[in-house]
Amino acid sequence: MKIMICDDSMFVRKKMKDAVNAADPGAQIIEAANGRQAVEKYKSEKPDLVFMDIIMPEKSGVDALSEIINFDKKARVVMASSVGTQENLKQAILAGAYDFLQKPIENEDVAKIISKAKED
Predict the structure, then answer these.
(1) 18 lies in a domain?
(2) Between the CA of residue 36 and those of 1, 61, 104, what are the distances in Å?
(3) Less Cβ around it within 10 Å: N or C end of the chain?
(4) Containing domain of residue 78, as a range?
């Protein structure tokens, strides 16, 4: 699988990479540091699954999600949210999010989503 991780925190991207590698050691991982990069890299790389933070500089995760869904209606974008961003999460689900994760992210939650995506 080709999986994109998009978060403005390098620490969170590293933790997500570790979780993805634990769940799917053969996965090809692409990284993006903001919503603008996420849209550009989605269009050029066409990943099978995207894990994206909601709150980011340059372009929010919800805006990036909308652009990605407009580009590819079958895109599977999982939104990650901290406590206190429930309204943003609702917007993400309405915009077409595939699933969501609550931060701090647990490896087993990432594994479940990857497994679900492989079955779809």
Answers:
(1) yes
(2) 23, 9, 23
(3) C
(4) 2-114
